[in-house]
Design a protein that fits this description.
Blueprint (H helix, E strand, L loop, with lengths): L14 H6 L10 E8 L5 E3 L7 E4 L3 H11 L3 E6 L17 H12 L4 E6 L12 E3 L2 E3 H18 L3 E4 L6 H11 L8 E6 L6 H7 L19 H13 L3 E5 L5 H10 L4 E5 L1 H13 L4 H15 L3 E4 L2 H9 L1
Helix pairs in contact: 3-4, 4-5, 9-10
Length: about 325
């Protein structure tokens, strides 16, 4: 037997040894910070179900962006709360819409910051679904045109990358074609390639005011029981022109992240979603866990599973921890 000739504890006896052989590393540059943008001026509202996360008016974004850059978090993704909603989600692609104004504000005030945008209709439709409803059902192909117009409007406002999250079939190809036709061929697409119909999204729907008014999203988001389907979905997005593949949620789907990392050579992103964040914050507030260490361990597990990029509401907190 190897024991006692090989003793793994020899390389664990102090932090210098542990750091020397550490296999997985986490950097602030690998984190994307989600920001919720709301109408009005000089507004900063804490989201009750997501302690430490705020809805911000456009005039508050420059300060937020500069803080992210100072911490080494070089990327943000924007979610908008529009002034008005309608059944067609027309506010999503307005030239002077909430997200379009937010993009311009950030690119003017913090040009070094990478600004990603969520491309979906749920925040803009009065019914709260991610697509257009025709004859009492989500019309996939009618939705594609609106999504493509939205992505082009984001690129025209200065977005560095667009991220479709709707889970309509064919949307990556439609968006890629529309961007290319409008001479935005250098704008990449980070596809929510594998997005499950998860119960971990609850706090986000409060934050973005986008819960469905009727029914749910199981008709277009993936069944949590399915694994092989994730590979089929990701393959389609690769073929349609995705530049980055995302898995959402992250912690409950580490196996899916690992499968995509083994199968594809594109960068893999994972969204550490609102419910995963809120549970850590709640348990930390109760003193049941060490919030800071659980945060770090959780984000490290997502990296270890194979995600190079993590979207997380902990981005700034984790960056502070990494800076020491």
């Amino acid at each position: 037997m190897l024991f006692p000739d090989y003793r793994p504890r020899r390389l664990r006896k102090n932090e210098a040894f542990r750091a020397l052989i550490r296999e997985t590393h986490l950097s602030p540059a690998q984190l994307i910070y989600p920001i919720f943008v709301m109408p009005g001026k000089n507004r900063r509202e804490q989201i009750s179900s997501m302690p430490g996360v705020y809805r911000l008016s456009v005039d508050q974004l420059a300060k937020e962006g500069k803080e992210c850059l100072k911490l080494g978090v070089n990327s943000v993704i924007l979610f908008g709360l529009p002034e008005k909603k309608d059944p067609m989600g027309s506010g999503a692609h307005l030239k002077d819409g909430i997200i379009q104004r937010a993009i311009r504000e950030l690119k003017n005030s913090v040009p070094e910051l990478l600004v990603f945008t969520d491309v979906c209709l749920c925040e803009y439709t009065s019914h709260g679904h991610c697509g257009i409803i025709l004859e009492n059902q989500i019309d996939n192909d009618a939705t594609l045109e609106i999504l493509a117009r939205t992505a082009v409007s984001h690129a025209a406002a200065g977005a560095d990358m667009v991220a479709p999250s709707d889970m309509m079939d064919g949307r990556v190809g439609e968006i890629r074609a529309a961007l290319d036709e409008e001479n935005f061929d250098t704008v990449p697409i980070m596809s929510y390639a594998v997005k499950y119909a998860s119960s971990f999204y609850g706090p986000f729907r409060d934050a973005a005011d986008c819960a469905p008014q009727e029914g749910d999203r199981r008709g277009y988001q993936m069944d949590p029981a399915n694994s092989l389907e994730a590979l089929r979905e990701a393959t389609l997005d690769v073929e349609e022109g995705a530049d980055i593949l995302m898995v959402k949620p992250a912690v409950a789907y580490l196996d899916i992240i690992s499968k995509l990392r083994d199968e594809f050579d594109l960068p893999i992103a994972a969204y550490h979603v609102s419910g995963e964040y809120a549970m850590i914050k709640a348990a930390g507030a109760k003193g049941w866990i060490d919030e800071e260490r659980v945060m770090a361990e959780t984000l490290l597990s997502i990296r270890r599973a194979g995600a190079e990029i993590i979207l997380t509401y902990f981005a700034k907190d984790m960056a502070r921890l990494l800076q020491g």
